[in-house]
Amino acid sequence: MRQMPTMTSHMHPFPWAVDISSSPQQALDEMASHNIHHLPVKDGSSVVGLVSAHQLEVIIAAGDAASTLDPYCDHNALRYQTQDTLDRVLMGMLENRQHAALIMKGDNLAGIYTHHNAQEHLLKLLRELYPPGDDVA
What is the pLDDT of residue 135? Predict the structure, then answer.
């Protein structure tokens, strides 16, 4: 019998993170260098939240960005554990209208799961269920 996959097999493991004392531009540069759109934010070794590229781009374009990430950090970012199931995380993201969730192993950051990851996994599933060239027409 098939079981719902856990986040261990679907999260982006060992994500890059940025320190809360970093500037919005430093965080945006970090995201651009890794071609990502969300970054976990840490204060030392503790995970304190999440920032998005879109949010930082808007703030920087307005010309009134603060010197640190603290005002822009989503301190209430969704957090799930590695053993949580994929459907639970997706439902939480949908219900809370969030584009990303932090995946933890205990109190430590283990990964991140974003709407982009969800789209990739859906595409893979659709291609497995409906391989090209199987038209019956």
Answer: 62
